[in-house]
Specification:
The protein is mainly α. The protein contains seven helices and no strands. It starts with 11 loop residues before the first helix and ends in a 7-residue tail after the last helix.
Length: about 140
């Protein structure tokens, strides 16, 4: 049996569309950049905090991001929330987001996907070659 996933209602996806790019930049400058640039670290950490706050407020009184039905917005946002520590965030600062994250984590499909990928344990350290490719200074291997 497969769970039904609703499309995000009009206007809902726009509320969450910045999360991936900002959290991704936060991870990049916090964890992967060879040079620690405090302006970039602070900027993207603050922006990720702001977006976590937007989601937290959005989830107040709602089961899922776009309402009472699980939607593509939940699927798209979850990976950027489950890895909160990479972005210097604390879920306890966002109680509605934390509750939602626990709800998504408990879904059977989410549990299967994360067990298969074992995402949390595969936080590879970048070598010189990978770092050059990441920064656009070398050819992909």
């Amino acid at each position: 049996m497969h769970a039904v996933v609703s499309p995000a209602p009009n206007g809902c996806s726009g509320r969450v569309s910045g999360l991936g790019p900002k959290a991704g930049q936060s991870e990049h400058f916090n964890l992967h950049a060879a040079e620690k640039i405090s302006y970039a670290i602070d900027r993207y950490t603050r922006e990720t905090t702001r977006l976590y706050g937007v989601l937290n407020r959005r989830l107040d009184g709602r089961e899922y991001i776009c309402g009472e039905e699980y939607s593509i917005a939940d699927i798209a946002c979850y990976p950027w929330i489950v890895s909160y520590a990479k972005y210097s965030q604390k879920l306890e600062d966002f109680p509605h987001l934390q509750r939602w994250s626990e709800t998504i984590r408990a879904r059977p499909a989410t549990a299967r996907a994360y067990a298969q990928g074992d995402f949390r344990k595969r936080q590879a350290q970048l070598g010189d070659v990978e770092r050059k490719v990441l920064f656009g200074q070398g050819k992909p291997v």
